[in-house]
Write a structure and sequence with these properties.
The complex is a heterotrimer of chains A (519), B (214) and C (496).
Chain A (H helix, E strand, L loop, with lengths): L4 H22 L4 H25 L4 E5 L15 E5 H20 L1 H7 L4 H20 L3 H20 L3 H32 L4 H11 L5 H17 L8 H8 L2 H26 L1 H7 L3 H21 L4 H21 L3 H32 L10 H4 L1 H15 L5 H15 L3 H26 L30 H19 L1 H12 L11
Antiparallel strand pairs in A: 1-2
Chain B lengths: L5 H8 L4 H8 L1 H19 L3 H22 L45 H7 L9 H4 L6 H31 L4 H14 L19 H4 L1
Chain C lengths: L5 E4 L2 H19 L4 H21 L1 H5 L2 E11 L2 E7 L1 H27 L5 H19 L4 H19 L5 H32 L15 H4 L2 H14 L11 H4 L5 H10 L1 H17 L1 H6 L4 H20 L3 H21 L3 H32 L10 H4 L1 H15 L5 H15 L3 H27 L16 H19 L1 H7 L5
Parallel strand pairs in C: 1-2
Antiparallel strand pairs in C: 2-3
Helix pairs in contact in C: 1-2, 1-5, 2-4, 4-5, 4-11, 4-16, 4-21, 5-6, 6-7, 6-12, 7-9, 11-12, 11-16, 12-15, 12-16, 14-15, 14-20, 15-16, 15-20, 16-18, 16-19, 16-21, 18-20, 18-21, 19-20, 19-21
The chains are: A mainly alpha (519), B mainly alpha (214), C mainly alpha (496).
Chain lengths: 519, 214, 496
Amino acid sequence: MSENSIALIFAFPLFGAVLCALVGRKSRNLCHPIAVASLAGALWGGIETLRRVIASEANEVSYYFGGWNADAYPRGVGIEFRADYLGTLIMLVVVGVAFLVAIYSKLPVAEETPEKEGSFYTLFLLQVTGLAGICLTGDAFNLYVLIEVAALTGYGLIAMGSARAAAATFNYVILGTIGASFYLLGVGYVYMKTGTLNMVGIQEVITADGLADSAAMQVAFVFICLGVLIKMAFFPFHAWLPNAYFHAPTATSSLLAPLVTKVMIYVMIRMTLTVFGVDFSFENTLWTEVIPWLVVIAIVCAATMALAQRDVKKMLTYLIVAEVGYMVGGIWVYNYYGFIGSIFHVISDACMTLCLFLGVGIILRKRKTTHFDGLRGLFRKMPFTMGGFFVGGFSIIGLPPTCGFFSKWYLITGGMLAERWEYMVALMFSTMVMVVLFFRLIERIHLAVTESGENIGHGHGDLALPDSETFFDEAHWTMLVPLLLSASVVLVIGIFNQDIVNLIQDFLEPFDLPKGTDR
Amino acid sequence: MRAVSEADSSIMFGEDGLLNELLVERFNYCVYVVLLLIGLYAMIAKNNLIKKLIGMSIFQTAIILFYVSIGVKEGGTIPIYVAEHDPHGNHAEHAAHPEEANATEGSEENATTATASHEADHGHHAPRSLTDEETSGYANPLPHVLMLTAIVVGVATLGVALALTQRIYRAYGTIEEDAVLAAILAEDAATVIPDVLSTKPKRAKAKSRKAKQA
Amino acid sequence: MVAEPTVVNDVRPLIAVLTPMVAVVAIAWSGEKRKNLREIFTLLAGLVQASVVLSLTPLVLAGNVVEFHVWQIFTNVPMLLRVDGFGLIFAAVASVLWIATSLYAIGYMRGLHEHTQTRFYSFFGVSLCATMGVAFSANLLTIYFFYEMLSVSTYPLVTHMQDKEARKGGRTYLSYLLFTSLCLLLPALSWCYVWLDGGQGAMDFLAGNSMSEQFSGTTQIVLLLLFTFGFAKAGLMPFHSWLPNAMVAPTPVSALLHAVAVVKVGVFCVIRVYSDIFGIEVLQALDGEQIMVWIACATILISSLIALSQDNLKRRLAFSTIGQLGYVVLGATLATKQGMGGAVLHIAMHACGKITLFFCAGAILVASGKKYVSELRGLGRKMPFTMAAFLIGSLSVIGLPPLGGFVSKWYLVLGALDRDYVWVVVVLLVSSLLNVFYLLPVAVSAFFRTEDEKEGEGGIQEAPWQCVVPLSCTALGCFGLFLFSDVLLSLAGLAN
């Protein structure tokens, strides 16, 4: 069983999806348990895989589908799934987040998309299959297939909401297809020059044949990066994200917002480190000069747009765009600590975004709106929910001991060592903006003051609320427990960050990235 | 500038000239680039949603054509064992072929290694690696296989997108993008945030929040 | 600081830090329904914490250093609690004064029938936990953690009234504190982490850091500025505005902010950085270090001048605090043993004096509803204990013997003379004179001027006993600090 743990990570959700599709017509109430159970199985598979990777010598475990393994057949004949520390950690995050969202989604799905539970959970499980696959695959074309699996199911999940969601999804379809197709184009050029689609195989051919200067490979790199940048909503290709995630049903946005863009960052790291290699990606191209400046623009613009929002959920979607900027910057400052920061930020950002979106879902359910005007008095009504929500908020700001502080620490250190002061300034600026954003929220929940600065209520803490809103009325346990669990994960990952960073450092050792500490 | 020298014109028109290099030798790439750009233009600039989707199809088709075109081999036949290479047939040459362990340019999916004794013992013939001269006669099947997948993906995307277009049409009554945007803006302007927090007695308000209640 | 003290491992620092957090859980559980139980928990937590802290005194006086390893943050940076002389002084002041403040808060909040008292006491507890953590931090990263925790946990206290003034005050408060710590302090911390001690990043307060060998003079000055302004809780101008704006908070919070927790945390961090990250020798050898002395002196003088113009009593006291914090930072910037010791002493002395003044201001508010200095004429007849305490507190802040404030100012003067900064001594004298002008008239006019005869009727109308007892105790404490100053002196490393 445990040798096939990598395959089981897909087997469970895949069969769960089929089961949901079949069962969903007749008895809708079975779909939720099936989803939770299959994701529990996938989580087990993920943990088992991590254990095997840690126990292995080369810090990676390979799995060839169909038995086309490396001893008998040359690399690249079969489709290889390589679980190294990077892929395994992110895959664990994907499956863990999905598991929590699956538990959480019981009530929102029943209320927002009634009658459609069967289809919802089918697409949900397929989405998780796609995302987890992206993290583990070792084949460039298989990556495209899985990207599209995740994308298509994502389109379906988002469009299940209102008609407005359908309109937003249409935009997403157009842009997402452009992105994935650019990636495919890039893979085509790579295949043309190297003759193999296996990621490690491509890297071997590039070094063996000295393809670093080849124009076709450079074009391939450009197309692949461009495609991945579009899919990860890097400014200015972000236009699809705010509307799509805002109008999506609660369970969908809770699943997609933490995961999709982060997995695309993983793809970029994989492409630059494993496939094209450090020398090709960073030494030979102009991108190391240009991209940090694009990142600065991305972070600043996204943070400013988040400031302009009057709705919590919309504000969070713009924060996702800013966080993507952080991670892309971490990669392209081309520094060991920057990479640690970027990879750790993928993990921590997934957890804190999950925390925030779960909280927002609960707020939406209680107050029927996520607009700023509807937030007053929530600390009194739902203290635990708000506590969990603000753990996520403080993590985004970067207050210790949440994980957000540590990822920001590594990113700042990386930017400093690479002497990319513009990136550091952008990080500082956006941190300040995020402080304003979250404390504005706290003000609106906590104070009895109107937008224009007039007192509501009769002073002495009177928030001028109807009686129903002043009583303790927490969320249902299926929604509250995942939120509190994700808040604890945010804290735990922060406290035990060194253990995770050790694994990341083991992964990054062979790549010999510049550390910048010798001055 | 009446007299253009031989050397100058040959930069463009000669044997190694730009036009020759670009259009003649790399004709397939030009085609796909043109299609790509047409598709891209349609996706961005066209107003009608269906036209956008047509553009998306053209865009994806361009890439498919690109892949297929790079797999072309002059004089290559379909990648099914020719009689003399067939390990299962009577004309097969047993166990005398050296094992080629490396993946060659355009490696075949059916190239594996098997021991000769295994062949002899069980009487059935596992696939074996073919040498470079033998494979030069076959066309590369891999790009086509990849593109089958890509076509499937394209079809699925198109299906999803068309379903979305239907949904948009049912909700907004139009599939022109600017009209849909105008309807969305009007809807946003008319949206009233549900007033959960008021202590005043509730009056009947026009709640046009159909977006949230769809 | 001290060469090679013996390290003793003990869990008591952790107990001191965590006691308030345990109390917070108990307080939240008791809630509004079991009010008296809730107040008992608060007082109990204060007593336990103070006794644990004071029990560490004999060990530290004997020259030991008490440590407790909490958690390994990074491979080479632990979250380490360490109790040495400086930390013990601060912790003792904080924990003892918390008991007084808690009793006072009970009287104040009940007297004014304040709302959401449970939330108030809970965040009070969290703030004290953070303060204790700062006092016992052994390295820069630990101190940063507790510093940020304090900023966030005091926000609900500052915005307690939840009205528009609270909003404005809260916004100023947070923007100054969080922006400076995230934009100035964090880069400085990262810089030290990466390059100090050959990239080992220990950032420890005890090790002999080789700042001068590794960094150029300009880098050191830049780092010095980043650290000093990054710890905006120290109230150095121009990052001082948060303090007067935070006066919208209820008076126990202002007493907490001004005497015990927030401001003292700020200056304590500055002293730590100056004495243990940079070190006295490094600072004395550093060109341009006088900039810091000038900034401190400017803060002292300007804030004293502004205090003169304030009619709102609490705002006047706020600006006075900014000036007194300037004294502490001045002591640190003087970069001498006596200057540093004087600075740490001043933390204790000023804490006692200022908390008395704030307690009096709050008592006046509860008893008579008055907020402005101009209204206080003749109040001494009706509130003799309060105004007497106010007088004692004023004299301590001004720095007259036999009150505590004198001792610390004495050592500051000695430190200045050690560096031949005669002009600094002049600044100290001028500012003391200004202190006289803005503090003494309040008490004097309360006792000796009775302009409105209507005001003088009704005999003694003091604030509730829960308010008067603490302020009397702290006033007596000002005397006590003078009498027991030798203990403090040896803890501060100034013993003979």
